[in-house]
Model the fold of this input.
Amino acid sequence: MNITTEHANGIAVVRVGESRLMYPLLSEFSAAVQKLIAAGERRVVVDLSSVGYVDSATIGCLMDLYRQASAAGGALKLAGVQKRVETMLTMTGAQNFIEVHPDEPSAVKSFGA
Done:
């Protein structure tokens, strides 16, 4: 799976370089973000600008990661969400919980960095 993590100003930025984020890539993606949260990262941005398609399992995974970050006293935010992915977030109600930003810089800025 094409996933990179970068740290800037105390914020972990996870960039997903896949056009479709769904099974079987979900487990690797989820494990990478869970590892960051477990290691003490409290501010996580997931950049989905390359992702044009997600399924319901992906939405469930994002909600689970959001809950884990929140339970640890942190936050998980999305950046660069394409229209089709945004539609899935809206249809499932996930956008009522997870903050969605148009791009990575605005997501990072939303943390006050």
Notes: The longest strand covers residues 3-8. The chain has four helices and seven strands. The chain has a mean pLDDT of 95.
